[in-house]
Design brief:
homodimer, Alpha-Beta Plaits, 18 strands, 3 domains, 28% strand, Dihydrodipicolinate Reductase, domain 2, Rossmann fold
């Protein structure tokens, strides 16, 4: 008999409960042992008494799960750093397997958790913390285990992908789409965590740990959100053959120098990542032998996230019911450096408001030449009153180089304003 | 120490060897134990003596591997039904784990192999048999284990996907593209196995076993290749908003009735499957909780296929080095019926050569009405001499119903010929 202690009974917790309730027989058959939730810890147990059968005990005290010798698997689905950190730490110390959907606590404490798990001959599973139902963590740990992973390109935030898709397809403003997304439940009342890129940045550090065995914190990486992406940027990008996506990016070179960042980027429209629409997530990876591969699916929601949590539970239970099975992420992280963001390179999509006079274009392009920047594409658009818009895609150049180019452009009399600066990835 | 016996040293066998050679230290670190190829069996060992170090012994006799008590993992990469069947059978009987890339032997003998593996407390892994480097088998068995899988839509043959992509993008004929594909090594000298849909059909039965636990043989399913798909079909489909892909399809209904088939189908151009290009493979699955998810990657080639084989080896080795780990596909297959192909339904794309006279279109559409078939789209094209082309997309109807419609159309004087009949899937 495998007993689960479920801590948290919100959206994801109820998804986990429902899956084990609906597919319990099939799952027990797969594992070769009965499995059930023995206890659920919630802040107000009395609220849930009608929602679960009497065989499941409800409690407000996490120690009722953490100290119960019959419970082998602790599922933490409350989210946030505390008290999740203390719960997971104690669970591992008490030699319980842990399954979590918590990106923040994993991003911040992964190394400590892996070490603690190994010391106590258990493991911590966190498939649900990145990409919802998509088995990206397990694929990196097992399915692609033969490979040195050289790069990942993730669309790992469903809210921002939904917003970018709707701006593009319905030709609406960012604000209008955000409002609809909030009404439909695809965006939070306070959307900062998603829209600012913070959520994607947490996930970027987790992917870096699994793909590269690299222990980086949020402070080590650059991130930027989609707040400044407008319908016009998306339309010009489209005209040039690109879609705009919020990218969680990680890349290794032969000397174990890494690039890690999160920002909105132009992606060629024929690339599989460009066609990841609405609330879907995807992670594109490049391995030294498997070459390119992509996993796509729903990145949020009770059922997809619950699917990942329960699949983790099944994986652990296999081992528990047959004998012991470890699939510890190696506790020995590698050492490697994250390249300073200013030294990373990409092409740049620049949208400029310029004065509509003879010779303006020549003056602008002269500034690019003066900075030794080649122009790959140029579009001139929309003459309104005295102003026009110019969109330029540059050759690949470093962030630092682009900054000095932009400084120069800002000093150019013919340029009224630099409206947009978005990176372009040809992949 | 984990010792591998490698049977076959062609394209895939050399890929496996190269990966273990290049990433051996990383892989040993992951497993927590040294791992190496102890022996390679090939028909002419003398040909390979310069290609492997003296620590690897070469032999022409499979029993040198199958009877060696030091070898725990047998890797079969010779392909075809025999002698692979006998090799795998004896390996399992001798309590060795088996890794195979062989779709044909797995399609035909899966149930027997699973039973034998369970009886001997070992397992057979076959990730490389479907979708090359893509971890689709493992994801179905573990990553999506919480789900009842309700459908899969696979692009599982790289050769045909390459051909269909090139016809569409380079606007060339089937024959011209096939010739180039053969020159580039994307198609065999005798392309029948791929082009006829046979390869995709073997893989369809394997996916059905893993996704549905259904034991079906090739004879139980309908399959059709891409020999008759022309540039015109692809262009008309494009005009209607679809791409044409060779689909390996499986679907279950609530009563465990199944639909399984392989045929070229129109797929909406915005669907992720429609954008799987060139030699890439992908499998789109629908689970009862994870909802929709897709895995994409290279479906063939020494390195991607080798990646899948070695990842299987690593998965087995984890268990062997730590203790025992089973992930047997349940030997207990379910019982369920495959719906007769004539009863399965889809929309149909019909391309007709018709006489170019007043009233022709009315006469044709009257035949559809007489057969109670609604028309969703109609395009009239290309007046040459006395003939014109009409493309019609029907409502969803059964194969049987479509056959009787076509019989009726063939009897219609105004219709010179029915050029194409391709199914349309809106997904």
């Amino acid at each position: 008999m495998i007993n689960i202690g479920l801590i948290g009974f919100g959206n994801v917790g109820q998804g986990v409960y429902d899956i084990l309730d609906q597919n319990g027989d099939m799952i027990s058959g797969r594992i070769g042992s009965p499995i059930s939730i023995k206890r659920i810890v919630v802040r107000s147990p009395e609220k849930y008494q009608d929602k679960v059968p009497s065989s499941v005990s409800l409690s407000a005290d996490v120690n009722d799960i953490l100290d119960d010798p019959d419970i082998q698997i602790v599922v933490e689905v409350i989210g946030g750093e505390f008290p999740a950190y203390d719960i997971i730490t104690k669970a591992l110390q008490n030699k319980k397997f842990v399954v979590t959907a918590n990106k923040e606590v994993m991003s911040k404490h992964k190394k400590e958790f892996f070490k603690l798990a190994k010391e106590n001959a258990v493991d911590i599973y966190f498939e649900a913390a990145v990409g919802g139902g998509i088995p990206i963590i397990r694929s990196l740990k097992v399915g692609f285990a033969a490979n040195k992973i050289n790069a990942f390109y993730g669309i790992v935030n469903g809210t921002t992908n939904y917003i970018l898709t709707k701006i593009a397809e319905e030709k609406k403003s960012f604000d209008a789409v955000l409002k609809t997304a909030q009404e439909l439940g695809f965006a939070e009342a306070d959307p900062t965590m998603d829209v600012s890129g913070l959520d994607a940045a947490y996930k970027c550090t987790i992917l870096a740990a699994v793909a590269f065995k690299l222990d980086v914190q949020l402070d080590d990486i650059y991130y930027e959100g989609i707040e400044n992406i407008s319908l016009k940027d998306i339309e010009y990008a489209k005209e040039l053959g690109y879609h705009i996506k919020l990218l969680s990016f990680g890349k290794r070179d032969a000397n174990n120098h890494f690039e890690l960042f999160v920002y909105p980027a132009l992606i060629p429209e024929e690339h599989p990542l460009a066609n990841v629409r609405n609330e879907f997530n995807a992670t594109y990876i490049v391995g030294d032998h498997v070459d390119e591969s992509m996993l796509l699916g729903k990145g949020a929601g009770a059922a997809p996230t619950g699917s990942a949590v329960v699949s983790d539970i099944i994986d652990i239970s296999f081992g528990l019911s047959q004998s012991v099975s470890f699939r510890n992420l190696e506790t020995l992280f590698i050492s490697g450096n994250v390249r300073p963001f200013e030294d990373t390179a990409s092409r740049f999509f620049l949208r400029l408001l310029v004065s509509d006079q003879a010779g303006t274009l020549e003056k602008i392009t002269a500034q690019f030449s003066a900075q030794s920047v080649n122009i790959e594409n140029i579009i001139q658009k929309e003459h309104k009153d005295q102003d026009a818009e110019v969109v330029i895609v540059t050759q690949s150049l470093s962030e630092k180089h682009c900054d000095s180019l932009i400084k120069r452009l800002e000093e150019t009399a013919e340029i009224t304003r630099i409206i947009s600066k978005i990176r372009v990835h040809k992949l």
